[in-house]
Design a protein that fits this description.
Layout lengths: L1 E6 L2 E8 L3 E2 L3 E2 L4 E9 L3 E4 L9 H10 L9 E3 L5 H4 L2 H7 L4 E4 L1 H11 L4 E3 L5 E5 L2 E7 L9 E5 L4 E5 L19 H19 L3 H12 L5 E4 L9 H14 L5 E8 L5 H15 L3 E6 L5 H10 E7 L2 E2 L2 E2 L1 H12 L6 E8 L5 H11 L5 E9 L4 H19 L6
Parallel strand pairs: 6-7, 7-8, 8-9, 13-14, 15-16, 15-17, 17-20, 20-21
Antiparallel strand pairs: 1-2, 2-5, 3-4, 5-6, 10-11, 11-12, 12-13, 18-19
Helix pairs in contact: 5-9, 6-7, 8-12, 10-11
Bound molecules: MU-OXO-diiron.
Length: 408
């Protein structure tokens, strides 16, 4: 766990976590940080906690002591969001201190009780204030469905710091550099990619609510954005707000100028057309990513499709339906409400077709509204004339995705 001073009396405690499935689902290849913040006036508040996964609260208490905060002196636990990655330490804290107040929204209050049996809660509404003394004044601003319905921003007036919880967060472990002005160009790129992974894996379903939260953030004068995961932005907080605005467009079909090939093949026949597709994309100078299902993790699959302006779905028919690992991937993209992508499918069939019908059912059922080029299906191995049709489909896809490219 690292301890960092943000301003006089305001500290960040941050811990890298790896080898976990985030939310019990997402295999996060580059880990994640959990960030907790301390604000000290005459009274002391802690905003979110950081011991959800290591199960060792003593680590937090020891680090608090090292920045001069006796854990028993904490008066307020501010729960910006009840998901246990931020709140999982509350029950333990109760063992060392009895008289503290939890501050949260009304929707979080119910969860605080059902998750941890706590009932000493002060419910806050939009604009409510907590004066900690010595000029440190916090205000509270609900941002429902970022990412649970209970979430709120906490804003510290004197330093103009927005404690944004999941909003403006990113996956990815932090090394020595935890502030935006310290990041190397490589680290900036790393955290942008990990921001896309975080947004797409965890938050994409709630994009309309995230847009409202971006608008709400614009109402504040902000010097510092301090999220629950990832770096703190104190040099250019606008950057992460702009990034999140752009990510919200990716959820509606926009993307980077690149194609993702989401593919699977039983016996190499669809794979042969994938090889051919790569030749075409290279010839046209198009950047592309390949995701072979089921070998790719869902985290990587969702993040890569999410950020791409053009999608090639290459999958055969399997038992009268779409090749199951690709069908599962499409269903997951639908659950995440990743809509409006320009897409082209091709694939092989043997005894009968069926893949096309299921693909369209998935897209329809999930209201994905993908902009589909007419598919190409071939019996068995693709012949020369099939590849000519595949090439035409790819060229049409490239044309269609041009209108969807949004670069950061
Ligand atoms: Fe970082 Fe929704 O928890």
């Amino acid at each position: 766990m690292k301890k960092l001073k943000i301003a006089d009396g305001i500290y960040m405690l941050t811990m890298n976590v790896e080898d976990i499935l985030f939310e019990g689902i997402w295999e996060i290849a580059n880990g994640v940080t959990l960030n907790s913040y301390i604000v000290q006036g005459e009274k002391t508040a802690i905003i979110d906690g950081v011991i959800g996964w290591d199960g060792i609260p003593e680590t937090l208490y020891k680090n608090l002591e090292e920045i001069g905060v006796e854990p028993g002196s904490i008066d307020y636990l501010i729960v910006n969001h009840m998901e246990p990655d931020h709140s999982g330490w509350i029950s333990n804290f109760r063992k060392i201190k009895d008289d503290f107040t939890i501050i949260c929204t009304d929707r979080a209050a119910k969860l605080v009780t059902s998750f941890y049996g706590e009932d000493k809660v002060r419910i806050v509404k939009e604009g409510d204030i907590l004066d900690l003394g010595k000029g440190r004044v916090l205000s509270f601003h609900p941002v429902p469905n970022v990412h649970w319905p209970d979430t709120m921003y906490t804003y510290e007036r004197s330093t103009k710091t927005l404690f944004s919880c999941d909003m403006f967060g990113a996956f990815g472990k932090m090394g020595e550099h935890c502030f935006d002005d310290e990041l190397t160009p490589e680290e900036v790129e790393f955290f942008e990619d990990e921001g896309i992974r975080y947004y797409s894996n965890v938050m994409a379903t709630f994009t309309p609510s995230l847009r409202k939260a971006i608008e709400k953030a614009k109402m504040f004068e902000i010097n510092i954005i301090a999220p629950g995961h990832g770096p703190v932005y104190r040099k250019k907080p606008q950057k992460i707000m702009d990034d999140y605005s752009r990510f919200s467009l990716y959820a509606d079909g926009a993307g980077k100028d690149e194609v993702t090939i989401l593919w699977g093949s039983m016996y190499g026949m669809t794979a042969k057309a994938v090889d051919f597709a790569e030749v075409i994309l290279k010839r046209k100078g198009i950047k592309y990513n390949k995701l072979e299902m089921p070998l790719e993790s869902d985290s990587e699959m969702v993040a890569t499709v999410f950020k791409s302006a053009g999608i090639i779905i290459a999958a055969p028919t399997y038992e009268y339906e779409l090749f199951p690992p690709v069908a599962a991937a499409l269903n997951e993209l639908g659950r995440k409400r990743i809509a409006g992508k320009a897409a082209f499918r091709f694939g092989s069939y043997g005894w009968s077709g069926g893949a096309e019908k299921e693909m369209k059912e998935i897209i329809e059922r999930n209201k994905m509204n993908w902009d589909l080029i007419e598919s190409v299906e071939f019996e068995g191995m693709p012949r020369e004339e099939d590849l000519v049709r595949v090439e035409a489909g790819i060229l049409a896809l490239i044309e269609k995705m041009r209108g969807k490219v949004v670069e950061g």
